[in-house]
User: Fold this.
Amino acid sequence: MKAWKISGGIVLLLYVVISVFLCVRKVDGAGVVQTPEMRNITLIIWGVFGLIILIGYLIWLAILKHSKK
Assistant:
């Protein structure tokens, strides 16, 4: 359970750092200027990825709790 908390904290920290980076950058890797609309699209895609990771962590937590019984 301790490993779950530590890894969750690390993933959360990385997620927040990358989210801030996506909001602050002026030009993306392809050279496209980041307008507010493009930032919103990028953050929506990043949010969907984050939801997938969150679901994986919740499944992992359920497995951990079930195996302790």
The mean pLDDT is 90. Residues 5 and 61 are 10 Å apart (CA to CA). Helices lie at 2-24, 36-68.
